[in-house]
Design goal:
Layout: H1 7-16, E1 23-25, H2 31-42, E2 70-74, E3 87-91, E4 100-104, E5 112-115
Parallel strand pairs: 1-5
Antiparallel strand pairs: 2-3, 3-4, 4-5
Protein name: Ribonuclease
GO molecular function, one term: RNA endonuclease activity
Keywords: Hydrolase, Nuclease
Length: 116
Amino acid sequence: MLGLAGPANARESFKDSTAAQDTVALTALPPEAQTTHRLVLAGGPFPQAKDGVVFGNRERRLPPRARGYYHEYTVRTPGARNRGARRLVCGGTPPTKPEVCYYTDDHYASFRKIAP
């Protein structure tokens, strides 16, 4: 039998995963996430230098897309001395009109799709 390491298998592993399949209303997210979402739509200004960088989706927890489709943004964590673990990852072009956004509060271990 041949190994199953091709691109189709990567799609299957995403499809079988529950990651990024849960949805959440924007209004149900922490207020800091809502603020970050507004900044994404406005094109900034962003508080962190790394906000807006390409998100590689190396763990394949989000649907496969071409490199450069996803961008990540810091969601402020009150009391944190660093960027914390919370992020928005949005996909689409231009970044100010994302087709989809996801929220993670555990530094990319899991994602919830933000309902439109």
